[in-house]
Amino acid sequence: MDPRFDSLPDEFDVPLSGGFITGAPEGIGSYFEEIPEREALEIDAGENTDTATEFRRTLGMFATGVTIITTRLGEQVHGMTANAFMSVSLQPPLVLISVDRRARMHALLNEGARYGISVLAHGQERLSDHFAGRLADEAFEARFEVVHDTPLVEGSIAQLVARVVRSYWGGDHSLFVGQVEYARHAGGPPLLVHGGRYEHLLDDAQVFSVFPEGVLARLTAGSAERTYDSGETIVCAGEPEDELFVILEGEVRVERGGRMRRALGPGDFFGEVAVLTGGVRTADVIATSPVRCLAVPRELLRQAVEAEPALGWELLEVLAGRLRDD
Question: Cα-flanking dihedrals φ and ψ of residue 266, to 5°?
Answer without folding.
Answer: -55, 135
